[in-house]
Amino acid sequence: MTRADKGGPVDLLSVEGLKKSFGDNHVLRGVDLAVPEGSVTVLIGPSGSGKTTVLRSLNALEVPDAGTVRIGDVTVDFSRPVDRGARMRLRAQSGMVFQGHNLFPHLTVLGNVMEGPVVVQRRPREEVRQEAIGLLQRVGLAEKAEQYPYQLSGGQQQRVGIARALAIRPRLMLFDEPTSALDPELVGEVLGVMKDLAADGWTMVVVTHEMRFARQVADQVVFLDGGVVAECGAPAQVLGAPREERTQRFLHRILDPL
Amino acid sequence: MLDQATLQLLRDSLRPLLEGTLQGTIPLTVISFVLGLVLALVIALMRLSPVAPLQAAARAYVSVIRGTPLLLQLFIIYYGLPSLGLTINSFPSAVIAFTLNVGGYASEIVRAAILAVPRGQWEAAATVGMNDATTLRRIVLPQASRVAVPPLSNTLIALVKDTSLASTIQVTELLRKAQEAAAPTYQFFALYSLAAVYYWVICLALSFTQSRLETRLDRYVAV
Fold first, then answer.
1. How far apart (Å, rounded) are the C-alpha atoms in residues A15 and A17?
2. Chain A residues near residue B146 by CB distance under 8 angstroms
3. Which of A104, A242, B164, B223 has the fewest CB atoms within 10 Å distance of its CB?
4. Residues of B at the A interface (Cβ-Cβ below 8 Å)?
5. pLDDT confidence tier of residue B223, bands split at 50, 70 and 90
6. B126: which chain A residues are within 8 Å (Cβ-Cβ)?
7. Taking residues B119-129, what's their average pLDDT?
8. pLDDT 10s digits, A242-253
9. DSSP 8-class letter at A244
10. Do A102 and B138 touch (CB under 8 A)?
11. Strand A66-71 vs strand A11-22: parallel, antiparallel, or unpaired?
12. What ipTM does the predicted assembly reach?
């Protein structure tokens, strides 16, 4: 569904007033976010700015103290006690790729991709297998289907993680620093797959330090600092001509660390 | 030392001791171990649950089981409970005592093995839609079993030998058969040595099975 169909802006994801503290540490101080269907949003910000906490709130891996998260027609208001059912409904809307892949080590590559659809969604095994092989082809790993995760390189592991997340047929893909733990020469293959997903029209929220990816692929760059959105806009603006001084300082540190 | 008569007695005792092993020692071990593992999982999950009273109950249970002699636990069930009006036959008494005992010790192994599975595995399972019970069954326990096999094998091997305590409550198992065979002629050295060999052989077989199992469970890790 596009914006035009509804006669107005349709955001697949909207976040309002997200707050989260760990003890005295106020990680999120009221974060708002809107992600239109089919768009790519990149979250950037200094260490401790809350970008990962925002991402993990979108699927309730982190339970915020206040604020609402809406994905499609599933809305969760975290200012009230949230039961397990609500958390799981929200979670079912998105797939997640982790920094440290978190593949299931005791299952083969194919087993990892099939686990959610077969065990949770109870879809027919053979149908799931076909779809899983298709997803592995899409990330370029069909020939690794019967291998175990430890037999793969870091980049391959991340690509399996992407296939596993896609397999549950989510509406939204979440990426938590998917290339931060990789050797530099393996970063490209993972970003390449993500770029393809973006081109296919996937709605994506990506926490990353890869500024080139943000510049090329993002529709929207959100700069978080101190638990709030300090600046938000098109990549050319936020990365090319940042208005806020703290955005400028952050980009300077990233792009010219010495 | 080993005269003709003793050798004959040993030969005649091979079969009764084997019967004691097959009808007493092995069933007692297997039933108690399987039930004990189930109990251990329950206790471990209670310890890991966020519910404080469950945690406290599990902790108290482990403390009592580990803090009292197994022989005493056996005596309380077989000789003690009848005075409360509850009489249990010798074999079931032994099963109950060993199950409770294994449950206490193994719960700590199971708990540690569950904690050894990284938190990211729970999170990844959650993102593909699993609830906690499914995650435990499909993702965590299979990985925890790899960690738990060596210490649980210790528990099992200890249990094989501990079942000899059941001879004190009239269970006809290996040690009791040896006692019975030795009693008429006072050939305790020969018969107890023979019984020792039986126990040792069982434990050798278990150690062998353990290595096979470990190899199998290691198939998905780089070694």
1. 7
2. 106
3. B223
4. 118, 120-121, 123-131, 134, 138-139, 142-143, 146, 219-222
5. low
6. 59, 61, 91
7. 97
8. 999 999 999 998
9. S
10. no
11. antiparallel
12. 0.92
Give mean pLDDT, residues A22-48.
94
Return d(Cα B55, Cα B35) in angstroms, integer. 21
Task: End-to-end CA distance of chain B: give it in Å, rounded.
Answer: 50
Cβ contact A138:A160 at 8 Å:
no
Phi, psi (rounded to 5 degrees) for A181: -95, 10
Query: Do B156 and B29 touch, CB atoms closer than 8 A?
Result: yes
Q: Is the dihedral of CA A222, A223, A229, A230 positive or negative?
A: negative
Which residue shows structure tokens 């955005």? A247
Cα–Cα distance for residue pair A114/A244, rounded to 1 Å: 45
CB atoms within 10 A of CB B142: 17
Confidence of residue A1 (pLDDT cuts 50, 70, 90): very low
User: How many angstroms separate the CA of residue B153 from the nearest CA in chain A?
Assistant: 21
pLDDT confidence band for A172 (50 / 70 / 90): very high
Rounded Cα gap, residues B191 and B144, in angstroms: 41
Cβ pair A120:B128 closer than 8 A: yes
Q: CB-CB: which of A100, A116, A149 is closest to B128?
A: A116
As a whole number, mean pLDDT of residues A216-242 equals 95
CA atoms B38, B41, B45, B47: torsion sign:
positive
Among A215, A200, A186, smallest CA distance to A44 is for: A215
Distance from the Cα of A117 to chain B's closest Cα (Å) equals 8
- Which residues in chain A have their CB less than 8 angstroms from residue B141's CB? none
